Prior knowledge:
This protein is α+β, with helices and mostly antiparallel strands. The protein has helices spanning 32-42, 61-69, 74-80, 82-92, 110-116, 138-167, and strands at residues 3-4, 10-11, 17-20, 27-29, 45-51, 55-60, 95-99, 105-107, 124-128, 133-137.
Amino acid sequence: MECNGMNGVIMIPFCGQEKCSVDANGRLKLSPRFIRDFMDRCSGEVVLHYLPEGALAIYPEDVYMEMRSGTSRVAEKAGMSIVQRRMLRSFGALSHPETISPQGRITLPQAYRDKLDLQPGADIYQVGVEIGIELWNASRWEQELENINNHLLEKGEREMDADLDGEL
């Protein structure tokens, strides 16, 4: 999905990163570009979802629902599969609906703040992931970037080795 930004420049939604912090009341002010993306997409109706990587995802409500609608016969599968029940738990128990305030803020539930180290005053990154954003504690985000870079380097080395092995 693309939209026209200022001066006719094409803008891709939910891209970039911004540093911020949580206030004493557990509220976070979203970046103006992310506020615009959420307002354009879902009028500010979002779902917070805990990610096992150590971040909090914020998805437009329709994106979250699309993620959940991909499974057919959910009740039948849940009745027969511990894996399916665990999947339902991970989405049900670890998600929370929220509305972006007119000031562009969201309130982070205390349980998420505690679990993800998103405490008042701590440096936090809002990271665009094209379908929404993720909130990361600064040190965890730096580690995640290192993990991504290491993975890409290792993958590139494997691909080069495979190409070279195929040429000999």
